[in-house]
Design a protein that fits this description.
single chain; 207 residues; 9 helices; disordered N terminus
């Protein structure tokens, strides 16, 4: 049975605002944009961490792009169609969660005087989420406007996103293996309390 194309003004506005945001990001910082799409994450990380540990306009835009589109995707996953109330509920949850995570990372850096390593870690996570936000936007366009029954594709999109996050953390930890080996006890403590447990509760309550 051919599925009707989803007709929702807010969804269309959100997706095309995301598209215009991508065009804006490509226009103001094309080098960063193309590096986000490439596999040369190490080169991009080195480029970013040479800057001060501060929030830039492009960081905020990429974060908005990611949070909005992951909220759209999870909305489709939960009820198989777009609902603005669920979307805004998820957007609120994800925004609070990631804001809390960023604040905790900054607080740890200040308390334990590990700003240099923290800077590398925060920007590394930012790089991979930038890329994931762009990928999820493509998923959302396909899900929203494809004639194909999209239930399986939604599940594939969620699975890909989860594996991408796992891959990104693995790549980040391998890139920082020298620091981790020297501080393996604190790393395991941090990983369990501030990465695995929060994500476990987020995924179990949202998905």
């Amino acid at each position: 049975m051919i599925r009707d194309i989803i007709s929702n003004d807010l969804l269309t506005i959100l997706l095309f605002c995301s598209l215009f945001l991508v065009i804006f990001l490509k226009k103001i910082e094309p080098t960063l944009f193309y590096l986000n799409l490439s596999l040369r994450k190490k080169e991009l990380r080195n480029k970013l961490i040479n800057n001060s540990l501060s929030i830039r306009l492009t960081d905020i835009c990429y974060k908005i792009l990611f949070l909005s589109n992951i909220s759209i995707l999870i909305t489709f996953y939960q009820i198989k169609y777009f609902d603005h109330q669920i979307y805004f509920k998820l957007l609120k949850i994800f925004s609070i969660f990631y804001l809390f995570k960023i604040l905790i990372d900054f607080l740890i850096g200040i308390l334990f005087n590990v700003k240099k390593n923290l800077k590398n870690y925060i920007y590394s996570k930012l790089i991979y989420r930038n890329s994931l936000g762009l990928i999820i936007l493509l998923f959302n366009f396909f899900i929203a406007y494809s004639y194909v029954n999209n239930h399986i594709f939604i599940s594939i999109s969620i699975t890909f996103s989860l594996f991408y996050l796992i891959f990104s953390y693995t790549a980040i930890f391998f890139s920082m293996k020298k620091v981790i080996i020297k501080n393996w006890f604190y790393f395991i403590l941090y990983l369990c309390t501030l990465e695995i447990i929060p994500y476990y509760y987020l995924i179990s309550n949202v998905l």
